[in-house]
Give the backbone structure.
Amino acid sequence: MTSTTEPSGRTEPLSVEELSATTLLRFATAGSVDDGKSTLVGRLLHDSKSVLTDQLEAVEHASRNRGQETPDLALLTDGLRAEREQGITIDVAYRYFATARRRFILADTPGHVQYTRNMVTGASTAELTVVLVDARNGVVEQTRRHAAIAALLRVPHVVLAVNKMDLVDYREPVFAAIAEEFTAYASELGVPEITAIPISALAGDNVVDPSANMDWYGGPTFLEHLETLPVSHDLATCHARLPVQYVIRPQTAEHPDYRGYAGQIAAGAFRVGERVTVLPSGRTSRIASIDLLGEPVDVAWTTQSVTVLLEDDIDVSRGDLIVPTQDAPATTQDIEATVCHVADAPLTVGHRVLLKHGTRTVKALVKDIPSRLTLDDLSLHPHPGHLVANDIGRVKIRTAEPLPVDSYADSRRTGSFILIDPADGTTLTAGMVGESFASPEPVKAEADDDGWDF
């Protein structure tokens, strides 16, 4: 059972009913090395009473062995031996905790340049990204890099946490100057919402409890902002999408003709009686019923796992996409996208890959790599020929079968994909369909490679 607390001091465990009634927020942390990401996460977990007693005892013991008088809260997230030895974060550390107001999935991501792919992984599903800045150093190159990645991934909310305010005597002008510089840069990239909060993760100022040292700051604490941030989907304008994961046919005496199409709704909402199209075949029908947790419902929406039954007996299988007929995406075999290469082996022009989009996997060919993005200054290196680990660039891909893809700007779920090595199943690249803030100039299409006539 998760133990939680509110600023009011509640420390009793949440009941199952209370947990189910709270909303879920996924957020990721990012920042330069030694800015204090892991310490912030550790402080957040510690002060919100989300740390088990044996975990805290282990951290206290490890801290004493290293000659530290107080517990090093960063050890609550830096679990790898190499991370503890070097005092850095290497891999994404996921933590799950809850308060009486909300449940959280936290991704603590590395700050080193060579771990850019890890940050992309951690922030790809986040609704909020926390960018930490050392108050002594201000906005640095890595800060701009993380802001750019948040903009590329279209994370809707960004928190600028100006850390180590205790080391600059809690001076308001220091915080104001950093907040102004970062907000101007991130806004130029298209980040829709930026909130700046002055904190000291080591001392606990403005993390869970308000700081007595910064009476000039009248905004929320870090935890209060996380708890009260509106997280919702505009179902009136969201494109409804249901990737079919499994076809349910019990063929029992009780359900001799039952044929349901199960999956998690990726976006939008579906209603009984609504006319839908199955892609890529293009066949149409109406929703006869929707089953949710074994019970019939009239409407289901984003992230709910449902089983949909159609009025007509048409061919639907795993990998198909059920969409409203009046809001169906076009199918295409030519995809242009912004990608982050995550594998150690390079991605090259002519690379034969598997492309996984939703629940569908098809053969594909990398036709062109028009540009590689330099995150330091957002400049474009034209036609690099290949992308190596941690590179972000533009690619053109030809698939063996038509795919119903959305623009990533319209849907982060159905506008994303991964490229897979067909030889060993290794994930090569994470992709975002359509334009980005750093879209290159149109590149003239070249002739198809011989022998690959998709």
Notes: The chain has eight helices and 25 strands. The two ends are 53 Å apart (CA to CA).
